[in-house]
Amino acid sequence: MALAVDLGRTRGYLVADSRGRMVGKVECPMYGVSPVTPDALAVSRGLLFRRRRLVPAQAIEVIDRSSGVIGLRVARDEITSF
Fold this sequence. Notes:
The chain is mostly beta strands. It has strands at residues 14-16, 22-30, 40-44, 52-56, 60-64, 69-72, 80-81. A hairpin with a 4-residue loop joins strand 5 and strand 6 (69-72). It is globular, with a radius of gyration of 12 Å.
């Protein structure tokens, strides 16, 4: 899947689920299979919350560079926490 924006440049973007509910803010890209291309994003709900959500690249539906929002194709409850 090719995305219009490199996931490595999405730090600080807001993430919303398929229902429009806020998931959090992108903390950093996560690298798994390739050390060059990120295949997931670590999303944090806020400064005091230690738990993060792991958003795989396959769950991303749209990345809006003008507003800094990432829209997901899955509900917030379907995203893995770590």
